[in-house]
Amino acid sequence: MTSNTADTDTTPSSQPAPARKEKDAAAGRKQRRGGRAQQKPQSPSPSQHPAQGRQPARPRKTHPVLERLFELYPMLFGARFLPLKLGVFEDLLAAHADEFKREDLKVALGLHARSTRYLEAVATGKPRHDLNGVAVEPVAPEHVHHAILEVFRRRQARTAEDLRPQLRARLMEAIEASGLSREDYMLVVRSNDEIANAVLDEAFSELGARNARREALRRAFEASGRSIAEFAEMYGMDQAEVKRTLATPRARPAPDNPV
Predict the structure, then answer these.
(1) What is the pLDDT of residue 141?
(2) Does the residue 188 lie in any domain?
(3) Among residues 79, 158, 206, 231, which is most buried (max CB within 10 A)?
């Protein structure tokens, strides 16, 4: 028997021919739409170009008097700042009477003294300098103290990290450098800021404990009759650390800060 291949459907499907044709046509339309969608250019998202559409930040304009002071005294107002002597305002007016107006100079120096960079210079405890860059007088302990507090306030406002331990350490350094007893230091720096006063109390407490440990080590060393190297080896301590501790001046004892 001869088969009629022209009337036989050889496609492996149970669907009638018209249904298959409609399905194939729909798939073709979908494929064409998908191709066109892929060829359509996409606009960059804000996350891809975060700066697009935003105005660039304008640089902070420097006061013209400060720009001139930078030219005249680069070692004081230049790449680094140094604490200025008390009365430098009058010195500048006398030296540049024809160049600076009194009010303009006052405003410029106020901006300079409130800048973070200048406060950081004061917080280091470096001496005050005259217009020739010569160290002429120490910065008062209360000025160092309040500069440290303000610098850390500004830093804390820009971070979620707790900077209190670093602040305590800086205050301990300032207290020791001042050479004042606890009572005298408190007298000149204590304020109505409860948080600042609490950190100061913590600094004194930690400083007292550290001084007690240092004094105990000194007494043990003096009683041992040994050299620094022998003493360090005997107690399993770092020789350099023992040497630094012994070289540290003894703390001034006070009734509320025994050592």
Answers:
(1) 97
(2) no
(3) 231
Residue 170 lies in a domain: no
Flag whether 5 is in a domain: no
CATH number at residue 98: 1.10.1710.10
CA distance 222 to 219: 5
Parent domain of 120: 62-139
Q: Which two tokens stand for residue 57?
A: 């930040």
Supply the pTM of this predicted model.
0.69
Q: What is the domain count for the chain?
A: 1
The predicted pLDDT at position 62 comes to 83
Model pLDDT for residues 50-81, shown as the tens digit of each residue: 445 555 545 567 889 999 999 999 999 988 89
Question: Which pair of structure tokens corresponds to residue 83?
Answer: 């604490």
Cα diameter, the chain: 128
